[in-house]
């Protein structure tokens, strides 16, 4: 799902009418574009896209006879009706750094003896499009109660091609003792 086909949107048609017709409105901005382009895509494709990609994910949009490299910049979704309201894409230029986020995924959470406290689920950064990273998976197996993982502890962030927008001492997660956490809650009550 690296190339998504979209169509130019007739801005005279209201977005509500588009959504009723099974289409999701959106726009592409920035990069090499002179001005923003209003687009639309099939709702089934938009749902599939948002299931496998996140905000900050890199992909390409096929619009007519051109293919535009983009990142998903923002998605608007009605949480009550689960309707996708709008998706914004930022066009990427090969030689221009772009701000994005890396999503931190956790593996083997069930093998941790304590409670995992996620502090930074996303890490903001800037890089050239070729150096963008969508996700980093952290394996929690073997991590003990009292463990603290900082941004600087993650090998992918020790890369000079990525400009972190948080301090390397920032805590990504820590593993707390279950009994101490329950005692703290009881104490507060």
UniProtKB/TrEMBL annotation:
Any Gene Ontology biological process: translation
Domain Large ribosomal subunit protein bL25 L25 intervals: 4-89
Cellular component annotations (GO), alphabetically ordered: cytosolic large ribosomal subunit
The keyword RNA-binding appears for this protein: yes
Domain Large ribosomal subunit protein bL25 beta: 111-176
A GO term, aspect molecular function: structural constituent of ribosome
Keywords: Ribonucleoprotein, Ribosomal protein, RNA-binding, rRNA-binding
Pfam short name (any one): Ribosomal_TL5_C
Listed Gene3D superfamilies: Ribosomal protein L25, beta domain, Ribosomal Protein L25, Chain P
Protein name: 50S ribosomal protein L25/general stress protein Ctc
Species for this entry: Aminipila butyrica
